[in-house]
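Narrative of activities, Objective 1.

The group set out to show that a structural description can be obtained from nothing but a protein's sequence at a throughput compatible with the screening campaign. Below is one input-output pair from the validation batch, recorded exactly as produced.
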Amino acid sequence: MNHDFEKILQAAPSSFVLLDKELRVVWANDAYLAVTDRQADKLFGKILTEEFPSDPDSDSGRMLRGSFERVFRDGIADHLPVIPYPISGADGESEDRYWSATHTPILDADGEVEFILQHTQDITAIYAAEAHADGNASMAQADVLRRAHQVAQQNLELDSSINFFRMIFEQAPNFMVTLMGPNHVFRTANAAYMQLVGQRDLIGRPLCDAVPEVAGQGFIEMLDEVYRSGKAVTQLGAEAWLQRNPDGPQERVFVDFVFQPLDNMHGDTIGIMVQGHDVTAQKMAEIHLREAEERFRTMAHTMPVHAWTATADGNLDWISEQLYAYSGVDKDSLLGNGWPDVVHPDDRAVSMAAWANAIKAETVYETEFRLRREDGSYRWHLVRAAPIKDDQGNLLRWVGTNSDIHEQKELARQLAELNSTLEERVEKRNRELEKLHDRLAQSQRVEAVGNLAGGIAHDFNNLLQVMTGSLTMATREIPKDAPANRRIDAAMRAVERGASLSSQLLAFSRRQPLQPRSIDLRDLLTDIDDIIRSALGEGMEVELDAVEALWPAYVDAASTQNAVLNLLINARDAMEGRGKLKIAIANRHFGPEDLLGEPDMVTGDYVEVKVTDHGPGIPAETLPKVFDPFFTTKPVGKGTGLGLSTVYGFARQSGGRVTINSRPGVGTSVVLLLPRAQSAAEPVRWHDPSDIAGGTETVLLVEDDAEVRDATAALLSDLGYQVRTAEDPTAALETARQNPKFDLLVSDVVMPGELSSRDMAETLQAERPDLPILFISGYSRDSIVRDGKVDAGVQFLAKPFTKDALAIKVRDALSSVQATAPEQAEDISDRPCHVLLCEDDALIRLDLADILDGLGTEVTETASGQETLDKLQTGHYDALLIDVGLPDMSGEEVATRVRQQHPNMPIIFATGQANVPAAETLGHCAVVQKPFGDRDLARALARLGILSHADAASGF
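Output recorded for this entry:
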């Protein structure tokens, strides 16, 4: 059955009006228009409370609005039995009226309130009649109205209370929720809770459905236990993870809360009241504060300065570990007012007064005082403390530090002393500059003489060699009792004097070829005791005093003997051939302060030889000149003036120095300082004249000077050797290839032509690795001599030489090859093939790796000492090729550590230095000096048995 409800309502005698959600009039029947004195076209669309206004705080305003709110909230009809509500008529005059109204919800398809149908009755007349009631009927009717009015007033008051508590609930700063039933269905949730969990649909939904992310965090289980047991649960600072934004990540929150069970009148739990506070900000602040405090303590414990804190009244309440470690006192003993115990007594009163003033004024505390160290000494510290205040300026605490400024204080003291002695220091500096100027002048004189000596030495010594050879051969052809022998002896002595003069010039200019080795100077001087006594004469007594544990010196033996003899002869002459001389030999260590003004010397260990006489001494004006070349105080013909200058040049060239101290009337001391050797001393070897012999081997002699060549060939032939000659290196190579059957190459060093003597020797040794070579030269500074020292492994004989000297050197050269041949053969039979290459320069390392690869070896490359040591821990290698200068440690240190783990490993040092002490100390080492060529490296590998000589020759 279909009905037209609008038509039905329109025909009803009662008043009806239809309102939307905004309380806007949608429709009204004629009865409503009549009772309100309104017209449809002017009423429809108007908001009811605006068309019929009333004070919202009045009883009528609150009753009407409360009824509408209940309908919209609960979705059920609401009744107002009596409501006083004023209404204006058509003339605009307001009239107090009484109404009875019913508000019925009209729901939409989703069950939500869409409209409210108000059914209202104007009962003004009935209510007014109450005041004039008479009769039982009227009394009963009036009583009904009175009770209805009382109910309406009670409902109004109840609504007011509910609204008041709802306002408190909604605006409460803490979150509040009511959960009903065992499934914890949301009944109410205030704004603070919505802010906590994010705006979402909660009412009427179970917790696990409305806030699903809490599952697994323990809260649902806790609610279940409260509902089951009826006992409240409280937690502080509980951690939870909530997804406040549907598209965002879960956020970490901290809450204080209570789960309070709700019981019915029978005592059964029907729900749970959740109330709490979001303490996330507070908790995070506490976490950050703890982290900050931990960072502060960690930083304070690791800072090089002492750190401490104090309360507002100045009592220390925390001290870093550094201060306890520094002072050595018991922990916590300095807290409170105990800190002055470690302050220097002279500083204690001032520091405590300054601290008290800072506390009183609440200003920065800054002072300096001395703190006692664990060993009892005191060190200056700069002490600062800053006041920490809150936002209102109230002092909370102090944070302070102690910084060690002892060095700065000492520097300040020294600066003050320096300022007070400025004039003295300027004078001292002037004296030092004068000494430097004198040394510069001396150096320039040395250079000038050196250039002169170098210019003439080669040709002059060649001339002397011709004379020596010719005179030697002449003595064989003349009878021993012939008068000419005396002339020949005189000529030979003149040659020897000329050779000595040339040698002295080269020695002074530091250009003589030295062959240093590890020598015990006590044994060296003891060995020539007879020579010393013969040179000094019977009137002189010599005392030799050497320490027991004497260090070996790294020097040339013959040059050292000559230097000491020079000093002894000078001392003898000063004492006019009578008296006592003392030679003292001792160990000395020199630091940087001991070698000020000595740029050519390095700090370290030295062996000191001091020659002391008791002669008349040297006048002060003469003393600065004694080391000058050609300076002498001896009569004409008694001295060349090259004795001390020769000693000076030898000492400097050896890496040492010579100094002189003399007092007129007391005597003179000359101190010769020589570098300490890093290896054990080698035995002193001298050839017995009776052991000097020749041989029958074939010698290839290369000499560009025809006269020298003939004279030397004659000496060799006289010694029994077969001699073939060549005038230059090119001719020598042709001769050697045409007839390779010869046993020894004897070659001058400085010769004209495109091919040098060194290149010739390398070529021949590449073809014949076992070929011995003896170089002879009067001056060979840049060929086989580096930094004044003959290259390691090179056989060398200086011109002019005698027949005996030549015989000894030739025999030594031939014997050295014969002695090492079996050992080399044994090494080659099982030669290494895997080389570990350590070089920090990438380009040099690449070149060396290519060279080694060309020699048929396997190469592993490293760039630092530590990487090399690591490689040796994990791999097997047959040899080590290492640069001396590495970024993290020296190559010598690496080699020493390698030898400790691999005693038999061959090691090759690549260096630009004059010598590598570790090569001698460790043994079974070779040195190639930068820049070196392919053949240099190949020969070094062959000498150590890493390659056969044939492989070394065929590699290039």
